[in-house]
């Protein structure tokens, strides 16, 4: 389960990723489960109306912002919509949609169960989310898309239903497709071809962002990523959507193809477009190509090409820092505080302008050498004059603006101090080590080799909260013995015994009907 918590203030609306875990006691004690009232109290309504008196700020006259309207396009039982209404201060209307009659009925029961606040703010509809969003263009400040699987069929209508400057929150759980298990399926759904590198989960984020941008561009709109997270077994992105035909022209500058060497960890990005400025005019031109030769200059192997992906920053670092400080100041309000702060802390320390990342273990596997510690490797990169950071996607991932020539020179120097066994001459590692390093690496420990969070020993990657943690079965699927790895042996056996008892009851009922004498 996934959930987002909005924090509404007078001047802005911000969003942070939180888990869907709620203590039942908190839900019961915070508000009484009173009967649904016909009208909300007048005092409550007064706090949610727009001020009629204009306010002057910076020479411009404007009115106070209205409470944000939220659309949860695939609401199921309405849990998230109810949390928006009950937990977000100053929130306006929350519309919960689902095209399953049983789910809508369950949502309406839950609305009544949660009292007058939920009744006054949450409304549930039986509707196709795509049709509803298309017939309500630019109506919602926040649109939340969280389907089971791919969100691609909802994106075209979703980007049209968000107000200018509003936020689209989108989840994709089809990670096998996005990470390269079925490249042709990914291309048909997202318009991008994935590569199976260690960075595949970050590439999944960037493929999703590129897909959303593509849909937005068709309506002279563009996206600005605020937060992009890969965690557990899904990816979730938070993007603001704006309308501007001129700013939309910059999209090719934000997209790139990826060339991944089949022999070593080297990868290169090929921007789709470029600009040429002359006086006050700007010309948009195709990107220069190719950025790589036919064979890898390090190991002499071929390249695979993937993309296009979003190669611009995927986070707003200032926004992430502010949200992190807000979460810390209200840590008692978040049951999943440790998990939220761990993810946001790691994201706040990422290099924002470096797409994808390297795996230190993969570099060493290519050379068949022992691995240096992350601190030693990071120090060597820093001493060479480049930047390096971790990534929230992989505890072993390292983002750096150092070119691959420098990375391999550092590894060559490491291998000289830690010799390896002789390998066949045609192996990628042998070809790389056959060259002498141009850069003499300095492995002396650098001050910045540890991030602030690491220096303070702040937890950044937490274990799963329970066994068999992960995506469960799609609704309606029959549970069999092959699902033990997903649900656990005890639950599967319980479900199977329940199914057997139901079958026995049906069989006995049929036998009684067959044995009963026919009526004359």
Automatic annotation (TrEMBL):
This is tRNA (guanine(26)-N(2))-dimethyltransferase. Its EC number is 2.1.1.216. Belongs to the class I-like SAM-binding methyltransferase superfamily. Trm1 family. Dimethylates a single guanine residue at position 26 of most tRNAs using S-adenosyl-L-methionine as donor of the methyl groups. One of its GO terms (molecular function) is tRNA (guanine(26)-N2)-dimethyltransferase activity. It comes from Gossypium laxum. One of its GO terms (cellular component) is nucleus. It is an enzyme of class 2 (transferase). Pfam families: TRM. Coiled coil: none annotated.
């Amino acid at each position: 389960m996934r959930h987002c918590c909005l924090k509404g203030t007078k001047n802005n609306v911000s969003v942070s990723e939180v888990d869907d875990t709620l203590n039942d006691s908190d839900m019961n004690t915070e508000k009484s489960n009173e009967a649904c009232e016909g009208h909300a109290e007048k005092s409550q309504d007064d706090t949610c109306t727009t001020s009629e008196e204009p306010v002057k700020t910076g020479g411009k006259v404007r009115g106070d912002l209205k409470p944000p309207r939220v659309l949860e396009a695939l609401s199921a039982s309405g849990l998230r919509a109810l949390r928006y209404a009950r937990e977000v201060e100053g929130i306006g209307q929350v519309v919960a949609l689902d095209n399953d009659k049983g789910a809508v009925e369950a949502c309406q029961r839950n609305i009544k169960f949660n009292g007058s606040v939920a009744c006054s703010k949450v409304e549930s509809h039986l509707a196709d989310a795509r049709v509803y969003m298309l017939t309500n263009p630019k109506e919602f400040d926040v649109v939340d898309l969280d389907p089971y699987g791919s969100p691609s069929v909802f994106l075209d209508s979703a980007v049209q239903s968000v107000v200018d400057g509003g936020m689209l929150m989108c989840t994709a759980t089809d990670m096998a497709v996005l990470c390269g298990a079925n490249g042709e399926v990914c291309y048909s759904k997202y318009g991008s071809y994935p590569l199976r590198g260690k960075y595949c989960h970050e590439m999944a984020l960037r493929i999703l962002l590129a897909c959303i941008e593509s849909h937005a561009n068709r309506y002279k709109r563009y996206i600005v990523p605020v937060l992009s997270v890969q965690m557990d077994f899904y990816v979730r992105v938070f993007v603001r959507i704006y309308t501007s035909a001129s700013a939309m022209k910059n999209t090719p500058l934000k997209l790139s193809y990826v060339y991944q060497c089949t022999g070593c960890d080297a990868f290169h990005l090929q921007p789709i477009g470029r600009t040429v400025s002359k006086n006050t005019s700007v010309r948009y031109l195709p990107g220069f190509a190719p950025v790589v030769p036919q064979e890898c200059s390090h190991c002499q192997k071929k390249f695979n090409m993937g993309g296009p992906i979003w190669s611009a920053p995927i986070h707003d670092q200032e926004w992430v820092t502010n949200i992190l400080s807000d979460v810390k100041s209200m840590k008692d309000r978040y049951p999943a505080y440790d998990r939220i702060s761990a993810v946001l802390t790691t994201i706040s320390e990422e290099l924002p302008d470096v797409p994808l990342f390297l795996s230190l273990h993969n570099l060493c596997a290519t050379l068949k050498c022992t691995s240096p510690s992350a601190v030693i490797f990071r120090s060597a990169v820093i001493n060479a004059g480049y930047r390096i950071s971790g990534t929230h996607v992989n505890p072993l991932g390292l983002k750096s603006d150092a070119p691959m020539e420098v990375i391999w020179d550092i590894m060559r120097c490491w291998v000289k101090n830690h010799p390896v066994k002789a390998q066949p001459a045609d192996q990628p590692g042998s070809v790389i080590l056959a060259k002498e390093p141009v850069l003499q690496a300095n492995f002396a420990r650098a001050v910045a080799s540890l991030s602030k969070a690491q220096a303070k020993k702040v937890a950044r990657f937490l274990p799963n909260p329970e066994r068999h943690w992960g995506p469960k079965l799609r609704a309606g699927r029959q549970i069999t013995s092959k699902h033990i790895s997903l649900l656990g042996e005890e639950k599967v056996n319980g479900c199977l015994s329940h199914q057997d008892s139901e079958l026995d009851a049906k069989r006995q009922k049929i036998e009684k009907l067959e044995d009963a004498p026919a009526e004359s």
